[in-house]
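Researcher: Re-running this chain for the archive, since the previous output was lost when a drive failed. Same request as before.
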Amino acid sequence: MLALSMQWFDLWRRAAAVGWQQLDAVAALNDPRQMRERWLSDMRQLSADYVKSPAFLALIRFNITLLTQPTIIKAAQFVALPSR
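Model: Regenerated structure tokens:
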């Protein structure tokens, strides 16, 4: 039992050391705002690419069609589960 406890303690000690090394690497950055700005610009680009993708546009077209055509709405209500 003691050997198992020592193994767990050793693993936790190594994990803590790796965590501190990562923290030191992040703290060594000159300006954390640069990293934030780079991350935000990547997110903006990713969102713009996703919104312009054919799959997203097809999904939006399907949803708008489903919401605006009365025959489809009646068919969807027919298929939907009964309300309680």
